[in-house]
Design goal:
The chain has 244 residues and is α/β, with parallel strands linked by helices. The protein has one domain (2-240). It has helices spanning 2-35, 37-56, 88-94, 115-121, 132-149, 173-181, 227-240, and strands at residues 61-65, 76-80, 100-105, 125-127, 152-155, 186-193, 211-216. Strands 1-7-6-2-5-3-4 form a seven-stranded mixed sheet, with helices on both faces. Helix 1 packs antiparallel against helix 2 (37-56) and helix 5 (132-149) packs parallel to helix 6.
Length: 244
């Protein structure tokens, strides 16, 4: 019954969702070409705020918990478990003051209005998961850009999203490369819950009344410990915050 009810709500949702993607795409292009990257960034922030309001049309509640005082100096590397594409809009919006840039798979760099444009031109890095050497080189160049612009990084170490909410083993190569090229960076674990439920019916219909929770944990200073210890602590902290 609930799934049947979700169909009309999904139709309304996707009308607004697609309209916002189409609306903000030319605004992004204009801002980047004729104003500056900061104007494009603010456009992306507003886009993702709008996408969150689209989720509210489905009765989705978005709970963002951050009681930690994050360091003001040094690059922040936010590392989170990955449950669906709907992990991304709340991270962009709620972490906006840290100028988050994403490590994303190259397939997302085309075909999606607004989203693909931002991934290609907004300071993010697109990697080919089938070519580890090229991916590590791309991340190395990305890290230099992050440091020069005082941005932060968002990475999903699992590599691919989980379909049932159960975290996968972290792939550490990307994180190791970032920490090597950003030696002063601080690791910030983030746990995401229930985002996978938004994709449980393969994005159509969209389920109703999901409670999406995101929790920011205490920062980890990798400079004060062995890298392996820091990465294990990061993975354990993220997974402990994921509710089964």
């Amino acid at each position: 019954m609930l799934k049947l009810l979700a169909y009309p709500f999904s139709f309304v949702y996707y009308c607004f969702f697609s309209s916002f993607l189409l609306l903000f795409h030319p605004i992004q292009v204009f801002c980047l070409r004729w104003v500056n990257l900061n104007a494009q960034k603010k456009t992306v922030d507003l886009l993702n705020f709008s996408l969150l309001r689209c989720l509210n049309l489905l009765g989705t509640r978005i709970i963002f918990k951050n009681t930690e005082t994050l360091p003001h100096k040094g690059t922040l590397i936010f590392a989170a478990n990955h449950q669906s594409t709907y992990d991304i809009p709340p991270l962009i919006w709620y972490l906006r003051k840290y100028h988050p840039k994403f490590v994303a798979k190259k397939e997302l760099g085309k075909g999606l209005p607004s989203i693909s444009y931002h991934l290609r031109h907004g300071g993010n890095v697109l990697i080919d998961r089938k070519d580890p050497v090229a991916s590590l080189n791309a991340i190395a160049n990305f890290a230099k850009n992050i440091e020069q612009n005082n941005w932060s990084v968002v990475i999903f170490p699992e590599g691919t999203r989980t379909r049932n909410g159960q975290p996968k083993k972290f792939q550490s190569a990307g994180l190791r490369s970032l920490l090597t090229h950003l030696p002063e960076a601080v690791l910030v674990p983030i746990s995401i819950n229930n985002s996978w439920k938004l994709a449980q019916w393969k994005y159509f219909p969209m389920p109703i009344g999901i409670r999406l929770e995101i929790e920011v944990h205490k920062a980890i200073l990798p400079q004060q410990m062995e890298m392996e210890t820091a990465l294990n602590l990061l993975e354990n902290t993220v997974k402990e915050g994921v509710k089964n």
